[in-house]
Specification:
It holds the Pfam family Esterase. The chain contains 7 helices and 19 strands. The protein has 367 residues and is α+β, with helices and mostly antiparallel strands.
């Protein structure tokens, strides 16, 4: 019996050692680190390693993902620092995270912050095999500018970010517009910062793969309800801001093709839910619809299919791809121009939505 127990212990120890040995020690600082900061790090397999200086702490944990659930326990060293590595590789792309120190929630001072989970969260980037499509390249770059537009319905000025393609300032051409919405917990900074929408556009335009167009991001008022009570969200206040205030402002202040056939709306997650409700309520405003991990359309939802030029549905392979594919087939059977896209190996996260925008953009505003 003693020999059997010893053999079992040795086998377990060997198994643990092999698992640890499988983690490649080629860690490098994350591309989103603050200047001069070594941690957090990522390796070639997608593992992340964190180091926090908290000499008086009794417990340190890194919580990863939207909302910061789960996490990685860090171990304390003699110098008062805490270090730990994720149990397994993370999905490719961008991830929010925060640090729990003795139960309190903090941001990692080593990395940049991004607005998500209704707060500024730490961000980490796991290099993706296909990251070239959103890489910063030596190509002509468009401009992203902040605008403040009047909003009588809310009694204030509201903010939007507007991407204009390279050459817009020197030209006279008019452009189609995509109104692109963020998800719950995020705001109008998300698509250009976490999503790198401007770089995706720059690269597609430089490669001649798309017709240049303008992108507009604004706050969808999604955070007015708590997570878990999304069903209580009312679309009317934001619908008024978008349809009656923002779109007229954009058309008056930018060189747009101000008609339905040159206007699209898409959104990720809860922004997709907003997109669905607003496009169905306003069939004469948008001709292109995109739901990115944001639900689906049924053929019976749309009363006049002649007004819809494209329905684009997408999600990650770790979400519910069968539902997206099934809805797309039903739309096609009903005579709609419907396209589905599934991001392989990703879940409800920005790599799914970056890839979705990359697939959607070339389909927009086709004659």
């Amino acid at each position: 019996m003693k020999n059997r127990i010893l053999s079992t212990f040795m086998a377990s120890a060997l198994s643990i050692g092999l698992c640890q040995a499988q983690v490649a020690e080629d860690f490098k600082p994350s591309s989103l680190n603050q200047p001069g900061q070594e941690y957090p790090m990522v390796n070639s397999q997608g593992y992340a390693r964190f180091k926090i200086v908290a000499p008086a702490a009794d417990s340190v944990r890194v919580s990863l993902g939207l909302g910061g659930k789960g996490g990685t326990k860090l171990a304390k060293a003699e110098d008062g620092t805490w270090m730990g590595t994720t149990d397994g590789p993370m999905d490719e792309g961008f991830h929010y995270y925060n640090v729990k120190i003795d139960g309190g929630k903090f941001n990692d001072p080593g990395t940049l912050n991004y607005y998500g989970s209704v707060r500024w969260e730490s961000g980490i980037e796991i290099p993706a095999k296909d990251q070239d499509f959103y890489a910063l390249k030596n190509v002509p770059h468009g401009h992203v500018q902040q605008v403040l537009f009047p909003s009588p319905s809310t009694g204030t000025s509201r903010r939007a970010f507007v991407y204009t393609p390279a050459g817009y300032e020197k030209g006279k051409d008019k452009y189609p517009v995509l109104y692109l919405q963020h998800g719950w917990g995020e705001d109008e900074t998300a698509w250009m910062n976490q999503g790198r929408a401007n770089l995706i556009m720059d690269n597609l335009i430089a490669e001649g793969k798309i017709k240049p167009f303008i992108i507009v991001n604004t706050y969808g008022m999604t955070n007015e309800v708590k997570f878990g009570k999304i069903r209580e969200f009312k679309i009317e206040p934001f619908q008024t801001v978008l349809i009656n205030e923002l779109i007229p402002y954009i058309d008056a202040n930018f060189r747009t093709l101000a008609n339905k056939d040159n206007r699209a709306m898409a959104g990720l997650s809860m922004g997709g839910m907003e997109t669905k409700m607003i496009t169905l309520n306003n069939p004469d405003v948008f001709a292109y619809y995109g739901l990115l991990s944001g639900g689906v359309y049924a053929p019976t939802d749309i009363t006049d299919k002649s007004k819809v030029k494209l329905v684009f549905l997408s999600c990650g392979s770790k979400e519910r791809p069968d539902g997206v594919k099934k809805a797309t087939e039903e739309l096609k059977a009903a005579g709609f121009n419907a396209v589905s896209y599934v991001s392989e190996g990703t879940a409800h996260e920005f790599q799914t939505w970056r890839r979705s925008l990359y697939q959607l953009a070339p389909m927009l505003f086709k004659k």
